[in-house]
Structure formats: structure tokens, C-alpha cells
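Project standup — Tuesday

K.O.: blocked on the structure for the chain from last sprint. Re-posting the sequence here as requested.
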Amino acid sequence: MKSVIFFIKSVLLSCIFASCSSDSFISDIYIEPNATFTINKTEYDVHESVFFTKTGQGQKFVVYPGDSLHRYNQPFNTGYSTASNGTFSYAYNEPGVYTAVWVASSINENGEIIKAIDSTQINVVAKDGGLEKFVIFNTYKMTEYSGSVFFSSYGEFISEDTILCPILFDAWRTSTTVNSIKAPQLINFSLSSTLSKFYWIENGIEREIQSGLTSSRIVKFLVDGKLAVQNFVVKTASGIISEYHVAPVIIPKMTKFSINGVNGTITRDIAYYNKYNVTITLPAGTDLSNVVPTFEIMNNDVNLVGNNIEVSVNGVIQTNGTSAINASGKTVEYKIKSFLLGSDNKKLLQESIVTVNFQ
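H.V.: unblocked you, prediction finished:
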């Protein structure tokens, strides 16, 4: 019985002493917070990881990246606790300039949470401005294939803000309502952030378009009867605006080839959009070493053809009805270059190869 009483007294004394020394214990482990930290660089691409590392001290560290819903000291915004070693990584899905806040905290002997704060600016950019893909979708139903096969023009970035879209000449049809580049077009596109919006600029007015939606079949590439560069903008949720210029350029087609009144038969190589074949049968005895062809490019349509067309054979510029060729080898290859009519930008170019076979 005495041993039990002694044990109880010992426990009570231990509790009393522990209670009396608790403040001293917290004081001993208290670390005055210092919120200094580093990041591995100051400019990042969209979706690129930003690595935060503590250089200060504290018992706990929280990072507020500064994007939507993660801004320090803002209602209903939250931060992220770092790993136990004081590191944290984060990727931004919008371009913009963000103020990242690092909070170090500790609990003192009075049970109070003591905080220290540091911040830095992080510049997030989209190398492509936010637009990742641009397609003029199902522009023209291709009659040379069975079934429903459509030509879609996949845009190529020729600079950070300029996109080149090749267009089949066959899509240059009379119709201005369907199945023609002259009709309003449906655009498929993708942006670097789902929070961004995409606009076509028509006569200075921004018109939002949705990727692949029929209701967004509004984009017109025809101005005063001619193909023209169209302007677009991407707007991010953080207010960053990126401009783009989309140029539709026809893949040139030789639409007529004749020698001495004999017309050749022109077909497209079905495996390529820019390769054509001409077959021509001249009367027996024709001197093929010196013949002068007449030809037309894209029907000599004044809305497509001007000083923007260059035709050559073996690097020598050819003039319709004037330039002689040596066809004694039975095959002659023409190269056609077509620049966007009315533009001085020599990068807005499409080329085609025409192989003439003499029978």
C-alpha cells in the first residue's frame, strides 16, 4: 500500500515539475523565424517548375505563389506548406508577373505564432505567346478521294507572332458560303492555358471564338476579293495579351500548259498537296530541244496572281510564251513560288513542283 502511495506522489511531483518547466522547454526550442528563400531563376515558361528553397529559418514554411486563389493576405486564398526540408515546387499555367510570398513561422513560449515574410517577383512567359496550334479546319472537300475527305490547313509559325496557313488552289472556289476558303472558316486551336480566351479581330472589333465549335465558324480570310492576313489575340486571365497574324497563302497550281496549241493534261500527285504532273503528247517529229510553252498559274486570277509569282526551270526564270526549254530528255521540272499577293513579307510563301512528261 505504501509503495502505491509513493508512486502516486512521484507521478504528481513529476507533473508539477513538468508543468513548471514547459515554458522553459518551448523557449529552448523556439526558432525566431527568418523568411528568406531562393528560387532557381526569375523567368519561366508556362508549366515550367519553379523551385523554392529556404535560406532562413523557422518551424514552418508556407508559400503563396501569387496566382489566382493563391495570393497572400487575400480572402479565401490559400498557400502551400513546404516539404520538411523547406523546399517547394510549383508550375504556373498562365503567363504573367506574379508576386510569390514566403511565410516562415514559429510558436514562442507564450503560445503566440510569430511570422516573418519575404517575397519576390516571378515572370512567367509563353514562348509561343499562349497559342500552341492553329488549324483552318475542313476548308475544302477533296473530290479526288472517295468518301468525305477534307483539306485542313495546319498553321506553321514562321515567327513568334506570325502563322502561315497553306491553302489548296482547289479551295479557291466561287462559293462564298461552303466548301471554299472564300467562306467563313472554322478554326481549331489550342492555348497554353484553359483560362485564356481567343479572339478574331474583325474591323477593329474583338470577336471571341471557340475551338472547333460550329457557332464560331465566323473567321473570314477574304478582304475585297483577295486573301488577306487576319489578326487574332490571346487574352490570359492575368491580363496578358498576345497578338497573332495568320496568313493564308495558296499552294500554286499550274492550271494550263500547252506547246504549239497542244494542251497538256494536269493532275495532282495524290500523295502531296504541292506536286503536280503534266502529260503532253506532241506531233511526231517535233524538235523537243527547243520548245516554247505557254502556261497559266492559278488561272491567272487577278485576285491571286500578280508580281507575286515566280516560275523557274533549273533556277532560270520562265516567262509565259517566251522562254524556251530543252525537253529532249522527255521530262522537265518546273518550280513555282507564290507569295501572298500584296504583302512584302517574303516568308509568306508556298511552293509547288510541276513535272512535265513528254510522250
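K.O.: great, moving the ticket to review. The first strand starts at residue 37 and ends at 39. The radius of gyration is 35 Å.
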